[in-house]
Amino acid sequence: MPFTAWLCVWCSPLFVTWNKQSRRGQRLRGCIGTLEPRHLHTALRDYALTSALRDRRFEPVSHREVASLSCKVSMLCAFEQASSWMDWTVGIHGLIIDFFVARCQRSATFLPEVAGHERWTREETIDSLIAKAGYVGPVTPALRASLTVTRYQSSAASLTYDQYCAAAQPAAARVQPAGGMTVTVPA
């Protein structure tokens, strides 16, 4: 099956993450996705735009930033119920937690790479995820034990803007001016 046809039929939960490269390293600029399977040909477009322009934690990505961005797509798989809040491995599993507090349901997720990137322990990860779900009270052993935890894995690929330009344009049609922006010259 041709690649474009495969994109039209394949469904997967996914997240799209934008990072900006600067002298101080990478900085998150947006990360939004879905835990429900979606057709890739529409989900990639929809979540690339949504995470770049509508992640409420950040200002929308501007045109000036595009050349310093990288985009990562994480396709999520292997969802399974954890036997406890400790039944997962840092750097391997992403997490979804669900819990009720004062008759209010709360939930949140972290992608598999978050805990390792932050250098968190399992307990620190769970406590951060509880806070991400909007809970502001004390995190007790009883609260942790009450969590419903779903663990999952992901397969991720990333591309910088320069890599995208190199892949998208024939080599003979690319010119690199002094400003660093790739310009397409009609062939």
UniProtKB/TrEMBL annotation:
Residue ranges of domain AMMECR1 in the record: 12-155
Range of residues in the leader sequence: 1-19
Pfam family, one: AMMECR1
Record keyword ATP-binding present: no
Keywords: Signal
Alphabetized InterPro entries for the sequence: AMMECR1, AMMECR1_dom_sf, AMMECR1_domain, AMMECR1_N
SUPFAM superfamilies (alphabetical): AMMECR1-like
Name by which UniProt lists this protein: AMMECR1 domain-containing protein
